[in-house]
Design brief:
Layout: E1 18-22, H1 30-42, E2 46-49, H2 67-79, E3 85-88, H3 95-98, H4 104-109, E4 114-117, H5 122-132, E5 136-138, H6 145-149, H7 151-162, E6 169-171, E7 176-178, E8 181-190, H8 191-197, E9 210-217, H9 221-233, E10 242-249, H10 254-265, E11 272-273, E12 287-289, E13 292-296, E14 301-304
Parallel strand pairs: 1-2, 1-3, 3-4, 4-5, 8-9, 9-10, 10-11
Antiparallel strand pairs: 5-12, 6-14, 7-11, 8-13, 13-14
């Protein structure tokens, strides 16, 4: 079975870069979007909002407009040679519905550029990895409540975009669930989305050789058990090099959840670092996916072999 391999790194951003904001998933609060755009302008970026970002689906209110419109916004932004980066406005749900509507051949021909998002966007991180072979950034989104209120989240994303060599080591807020060191290539995202992606055209066959980043939000413990058990039973975690656990916001208090994580992941026999500060949490770090790195679970550090962007 193939191993997770390093992916092609897009170019870093420079002042004046044009950034397209798209909404592949849920509806976007206009006030938060404007606040996020102000942050991006403050970095001397030129944000442009895709035509359907503020739409809401007529029948399914949890979607930001129709599948066709959301897909068209993402594809048009990606294929526009004047756009240097695409940042998602928010997560929610809906990215899976558009993954098969995108023209991946045209997007591959458009060349590498920066892609940022998390949560439901996990489905697109996986598709960008398997279809485009590109490093992507699991990081704050333009209309995210945590992003517009958090100086640390803003500063870490800004550094990753403009000066990625300054943030090659990420430091966790926690300890080792399972001690040890491991080398591999970063991947992952929202646990429930990774479980839902199994068997789809854009899913990789396994996390073998990878440093797998996992987090989720608002899930009952038995559901987290189910997602992890599904990945284990499917063999998707066979050969994983190590795991980084992010936030578990709006789940049960971490002491209870920690026992489940140890039960399901401890048997893999690989290092597991916890409370790594990415995902649905305040002050969330930006984690590049597709970069070779070393995890030191005891020290709570992830050190990238090279900067996230070229």
């Amino acid at each position: 079975m193939s191993r997770v391999r390093p992916l092609r790194r897009p170019p870093r951003l420079a002042p004046g870069a044009r950034v397209a904001v798209v909404a592949p998933s849920g509806p976007v609060p206009e006030e938060r979007l404007q606040a996020g755009l102000d942050v991006l302008r403050g970095w001397d970026l030129d944000p442009v909002v895709a035509p359907h970002v503020l739409d809401r689906h007529a029948r399914f209110g949890y979607l930001a407009g129709t599948d066709a419109d959301r897909a068209a916004d993402l594809q048009s932004a990606w294929c526009d040679p004047a756009v240097d980066a695409v940042i998602c406005a928010r997560g929610g749900y809906g990215a899976q519905r558009i993954a098969d509507l995108l023209d991946w051949t045209a997007m591959r021909a458009a060349g590498p550029k920066v892609f940022v998002g998390f949560s439901d966007i996990t489905a697109l991180h996986e598709a960008f990895a398997t279809r485009l072979g590109l490093v992507t950034l699991h990081g704050p989104m333009a209309a995210g409540a945590d992003f517009v209120k958090s100086a640390r989240a803003q500063e870490h994303l800004e550094a990753t975009l403009f000066a990625p060599e300054t943030v090659r080591t990420l430091v966790s807020d926690g300890t080792a669930l399972v001690p040890g060191r491991a080398r591999g290539v970063t991947l992952g995202g929202c646990l429930s989305l990774l479980a839902a992606d199994l068997g789809t055209p854009h899913a990789r066959p396994s996390a073998r050789g990878g440093l797998l980043c996992l987090e989720d939000v608002g899930e009952e413990t038995y559901r987290i058990d189910r997602y992890l058990t599904q990945l284990l039973r499917a063999g998707w975690l066979d050969g994983v090099a190590g795991l980084l656990l992010g936030s578990w916001a709006q789940c049960e208090p971490y002491d209870g959840l920690r026992a489940l994580l140890a039960d399901r992941l401890g048997g893999l026999g690989v290092p597991v670092a916890e409370q790594f500060g990415f995902g649905h949490c305040e002050d969330a770090l930006t984690v590049p996916f597709g970069v070779a790195a070393e995890l030191d679970a005891d020290a709570g550090t992830l050190t990238l072999d090279e900067p996230a962007l070229s």
